[in-house]
Write a structure and sequence with these properties.
Layout (H helix, E strand, L loop, with lengths): L18 H18 L3 H15 L4 E7 L5 E9 L13 E2 H4 L12 E5 L5 H9 L4 E9 L2 E10 L8 H24 L5
Antiparallel strand pairs: 1-2, 1-6, 2-3, 4-5, 5-6
Helix pairs in contact: 1-5, 2-5
Length: about 190
């Protein structure tokens, strides 16, 4: 039997770190949820909520690009307790006007980690206005095309993510992104 989520990421009774055990158990749990899901969209939303709560993010979300790739819209958002929703602010927004060359911020693995202190001036105002101190986003790709992204924002300036936490979050984001593409392609949501 696996660890409960309350036990994950804590120290074992012998004082050893269980981060690796947590990561493996969480990854297995997420894959099991997605594999057995009757409704992939509902499963993805539940996993985003799980990640927001487990890692104490402020919000988690999915953005989808317009068919021509020039605009983006937030299609799902989960906010942690006491955090204001931003979904309504991000409907049919222009990349050219608000986030030019946004794709360049994602590394070769499709990951964009941002600390507000080191963000480009072009993005500083956008993220600072939302009180975001740290964010991680994963590109959603379809046959090499950037069709959107999913991400997690942290508004707590004192929250620092360990290397292990970053790895778990990145892998989870990549798994979710692949299921989002599958859902768009085979679930009839993408035209």
């Amino acid at each position: 039997m696996g660890l409960s989520f309350a036990q994950m990421g804590t120290e074992a009774q012998d004082g050893s770190d269980t981060t690796d055990l947590f990561a493996k158990d969480l990854a297995r749990h997420i894959l099991r949820i997605l594999y057995n899901a009757k409704d992939t969209e509902l499963a993805v939303c539940g996993i985003i909520e799980l990640i927001v709560r487990r890692f104490n993010f402020s919000r988690g979300y999915i953005f989808r690009n317009s068919d021509d790739g020039r605009h983006f819209s937030e299609i799902y958002e989960f906010c942690n307790d006491g955090v204001a929703a931003t979904k309504e602010m991000f409907q049919n927004r222009s990349y050219e006007d608000e986030r030019p060359d946004y794709r360049k911020h994602f590394n070769d693995d499709g990951i964009f980690w941002m600390e507000i202190e080191s963000v480009d001036a072009e993005l500083f105002e956008t993220f600072d206005n939302q009180n975001i101190h740290t964010l991680v986003q994963t590109a959603v790709m379809d046959n090499g095309d950037f069709i959107g992204f999913l991400g997690f924002d942290c508004c707590d300036p004192s929250r620092v993510f360990s290397k292990e936490e970053k790895t778990v979050i990145e892998i989870t984001g990549q798994v979710i992104a692949s299921f989002i593409v599958r859902n768009f392609l085979y679930g009839g949501r993408r035209q």
